[in-house]
Amino acid sequence: MGSCAPRSLSRVLGRQSKMRAVTLDTNCLIDVEQGGKGAWAILALVASHRAGAIELRLPAISASERQPGGRSLSTFTEFQARVDAAGLGSLRLIEPLAYTDITFWDFCILGDDATGALERRIHEVLFPGIEYLYADYCRARGLNPEVAPPEGKWRNAKCDVLVAWSHIYHRGDILVTNDGRFHKATKKPLLTALGVGTILRPDVAAQTLGASGPTSGCS
Questions:
Q1: CATH code, residues 27-176+189-214
Q2: How far is residue 15's CA from residue 23's CA, in Å, rounded to a whole number?
Q3: Which of 4, 32, 93, 130 has a CA between 20 and 30 Å from the CA of residue 63?
Q4: Which letter does DSSP use for residue 11 in this model?
Q5: What is the C-alpha separation between 111 and 187, in angstroms, rounded?
Q6: Taking the domains of the chain in order of start, what are their residue ranges?
C-alpha cells in the first residue's frame, strides 16, 4: 500500500516527554465514532491531551483493519480523514512495523532482528493458538499464501499485535483498550513485562489521569 519507502528503523522516533504517553486502540476510535459507552471517557482523555496534560496517540495500524462497513482503505490519507471526522485529528499517529499487504508503505517502519523478536513475543502472548508466520498459518489450513492475501483471523491478530508493538516502540506509558484479551490475568503481566506498561480500560484511564468527562457517562 502506498508508494513511499518506509522510514529507517535507525531513525529515532518519538521524543522523550514528561507527559505520560497514552495510546488508544482501534476500538476506542470506533467507540467515539459510534457514541459507545466508553466514548465519554475517551473524549475526556482527548480534552486532557488538548490541554497539554497527556500525549494521546493512535496506532496507525488501525488504518489496516477492516473499516466501518467491512471495506478496506486504499490510501493512508483516507484513514487520516476518518480520524479527523471523529474529532481526533490532534492525536499523534504512531507508525507500525512494516508488513507487505498489511501496512501502508508511506507510514510504517522497517524492522530488524530486535523489533521482529519483540513482535513475535507479543504474538505468542496474545495469540498462542495462531501461527506467527502467515505461510505457516496457510499451510495449517490448506491455503496458498501466494494467492490468498492476509485476511481473517491472522490479519486481525497481526493488527492487534502491532497495536501493542507500536505502543512499546513509541515509548508509551499507558495502553487504553476494552479488548478483554489484553486484560486477561494470564496475559496482562506478560505484556507489562514486555514493555506495554499499564493497561487500562477507557473509564479507568480517564479516572486515573484525572480527565473529566460528561457526567452522564459516569453513572
A1: 3.40.50
A2: 15
A3: 130
A4: S
A5: 24
A6: 27-176+189-214
- Express each pLDDT in 108-127 by its tens digit: 888 888 999 999 999 999 99
Cell of 170: 513509541
Tell me the sheet residues that pair with 174: 22, 198
Q: How far is CA 76 from CA 5, 38, 48, 96, 141, in A?
A: 14, 26, 26, 13, 31
Give the 3-state secondary structure of the chain: CCCCCCECCCCCCCCCCCCEEEEECHHHHHHHHHCCCCHHHHHHHHHHHHCCCEEEEEEHHHHHCCCCCCCCCCCHHHHHHHHHHCCCCCCEEECCECCCCCCCCCCCECCCHHHHHHHHHHHHHHCCCCCCCHHHHHHHCCCCCCCCCCCHHHHHHHHHHHHHHHHHHCCCCEEECCCHHHHCCCCHHHHHHHHHCEEECHHHHHHHCCCCCCHHHCC
Q: Tens digit of pLDDT for each residue in 18-62?
A: 689 999 999 999 999 999 888 999 999 999 999 999 999 999 998
Cell (9 digits) for 48: 486532557
All cell numbers assigned to 2 = 502506498
